[in-house]
Design brief:
alpha+beta; Immunoglobulin-like; five-stranded mixed β-sheet; four-stranded antiparallel β-sheet; 15% helix
């Protein structure tokens, strides 16, 4: 965690408190709460060949990014040119992390993982009950990013643990979690049992720059290291001798083809080489900065696939982590139990998050229980939420921003101030900064520390220069600031301003974040409502309205959606029995 001077800390605390107060007390508006107090940064990631998101440019050899997801680095740019290639793991350089610096590990698991520990009681009490076991029971663990509740250094687990150790918590859901997700499938919040929907499986993950707790951006890093599954055809053409799923390669130019080299071989790591040997799942590279593996100096922490021969040896498992500094040797780094996992689990993706306060980082970054459609945010879905949803949904697709997107103007200078400094906007509105005098720029963040949300570029004194930011759903899904409060400053003068994004009450029910409250949102709401309330179904139609909808003469177009009681996509006779069961005592 980063420190600040007493005056700056007081200014920061005062600003955030005032911004939150402005947002919460705006008439007939509510703040759209992200489901984590300080969400972890969305990593770049890869998914396996069986993932339903695979298709078109999205392949098992591509490195992806949110939103979308979209391709950040193609497989071809890494020398993985065959359609059957599968990128297993990748890492940006973490060599700038000092040997005794503390971090938590972020990781993913495969579809077969079940977890070995119930959610941490401290986190459950805080309303953050999600971990691998919880998500596996709901058939959606494989596309998530989890945070260890234990602290680590480059030497392994640390003894200074403030949260109950040997567990994990959900840091980013695969899909549909108010922006704290990766836009993967299934597109459901973590409270929902998605069986039998297919799951994306997150295989590898890392971020350019070392992630730091509570910061959108990290410590700068470079060089991309990667591995491919042992059955990837392009292993035969990559440089470095014996093809192996446990070789780690380096690409100095991941933006385009060429520049691929062998970084460290399976044999150097003490692993079994060859196409029938070990297969690295994911890894973290600590390189001294020259991109050449130096035995005894550089370090790799890695996990292995379930079918790796090394994992089959006594005392080892696919959810254990290992480390090597070369010389043909590796040693255990951490065991499955350190993560609340067991022998049936497999760690798939792997990265780290620097922090000097494990307790605070875990509590702040864990995803809380946010029920889709919980309008009054009382932690339950009840009849009031059902009634309010029906009031908001009054057509086939109704925008909840009745006045449409707005343009909010802020003057930049003169007098070295923003005017007005603080503005409140709705989702979809645009803030336009216009230069009126002096040399300035606009950078999101506090205390001269940019957070990466927006930046107008180098300071300029051109009068009339304009800088626009659209606070759209897509923007907010990527930039998940606490309370959707966006502080900003001038890099020249460090004067402060703030944008607080709010929405009207019906925004609570835009569950797919498309700007409309429509049938798709109603279905999502019903699925969660029915699962939680077990037999108490949300039924907004009276008997005459239901009958009219079945006969094809709905009193309102959206009644066709409401009449689809069994959620099979049609209002017909099959809905009569569930409707009667819902309304009769």
């Amino acid at each position: 965690m980063l420190s600040c001077g007493i005056l700056k800390c007081l200014l920061r605390a005062g600003f955030l408190a005032s911004a939150a107060a402005i947002a919460w007390h705006s008439p007939d508006r509510v703040v759209a709460q992200p489901p984590a107090d300080v969400p972890i940064r969305a990593p770049l990631f890869s998914i396996d060949a069986a993932s339903p998101t695979i298709g078109g440019p999205i392949t098992a050899s591509a490195i992806l990014q949110k939103p979308g997801p979209t391709v950040r680095f193609s497989g071809q740019a890494l020398g993985l040119n065959h359609p059957a290639d599968d990128l297993d793991g990748f890492s940006f350089n973490r060599g700038s992390v000092p040997p005794m610096a503390t971090f938590v590990l972020t990781f993913s698991v495969d579809r077969a993982s079940v977890g070995a520990a119930a959610a941490d009681p401290v986190l459950v009490t805080a309303g953050k009950p999600f971990n691998v076991q919880h998500q596996a029971l709901r058939h959606q663990a494989a596309g998530d990013v989890y945070i260890s509740t234990s602290g680590f250094t480059r030497n392994g687990p640390t003894p200074l643990l403030l949260v109950t150790p040997d567990n994990n918590t959900l840091g980013r859901n695969g899909g549909d979690t108010g922006g704290v997700d990766l836009d993967l499938k299934p597109e459901e919040p973590p409270i929902v049992d998605v069986d039998p929907q297919p799951q994306d499986e997150l295989q590898g993950m890392s971020s350019p720059g070392v992630p730091v707790a509570a910061l959108e951006s990290g410590i700068p890093g470079d060089m991309l290291f990667y591995s491919a599954t042992r059955n990837s055809p392009s292993l035969l053409t990559l440089p470095g001798g014996v093809p192996s799923g446990a070789n780690i390669y380096i690409d100095f130019n991941p933006e385009g083809p060429g520049g691929e080299q062998l970084y460290v071989s399976a044999a150097q790591l003490g692993l079994m080489p060859g196409i029938t040997g070990d297969d690295i799942d994911d890894f973290i590279v600590f390189d001294n900065g020259n991109g050449i593996f130096n035995p005894g100096i550089d370090q790799v922490v890695f996990s292995l696939t379930r079918d790796s021969p090394t994992v089959a040896m006594p005392g080892r498992g696919p959810a254990d982590l290992f480390t090597s500094t070369g010389g043909g040797l590796f040693v255990p780094y951490a065991f499955a139990a350190d993560f609340g996992l067991g022998p049936l689990d497999n760690i798939d993706g792997l990265d780290l998050l620097l922090t000097d306060d494990v307790d605070t980082t875990v509590l702040q970054s864990a995803i809380r229980l946010v029920l889709p459609g919980d309008h009054d945010q009382n932690g339950v879905l009840d009849g009031l939420d059902c009634y309010q949803f029906s009031a908001c949904y009054s057509g086939p697709g109704v925008s909840y921003d009745d006045d449409g997107p707005a343009l909010v103007n802020v003057a930049v200078g003169p007098g070295d101030v923003f005017s007005p400094p603080d503005v409140i906007v709705e989702v979809g509105d645009t803030v336009r900064w216009t230069w009126m005098g002096g040399t300035h720029n606009v950078i999101s963040g506090l205390d001269g520390s940019p957070d990466g949300a927006f930046n107008s570029g180098p300071a300029t004194g051109t009068v009339g220069n304009m800088f626009n930011v659209v606070f759209s759903d897509a923007f907010l899904n990527v930039n998940t600031h606490p309370n959707w409060a966006f502080p900003y400053y001038c890099g020249v003068h460090l004067n402060l301003g703030a944008v607080s994004v709010v929405s009207d009450p019906c925004a609570t029910y835009d569950l797919d974040f498309d700007g409309d409250v429509d049938c798709g949102d109603w279905i999502k709401f019903r699925i969660v409502y029915d699962q939680i309330n077990k037999g108490d179904v949300c039924v907004p139609l009276t008997v005459p309205e239901f009958v009219d909808a079945l006969l094809g003469f709905p009193q309102q177009p959206h009644h066709l959606c409401w009449a689809d009681m069994n959620l099979d996509g049609a209002a017909n006779g099959l809905d009569v029995r569930p409707y009667l069961a819902a309304i009769l005592p």
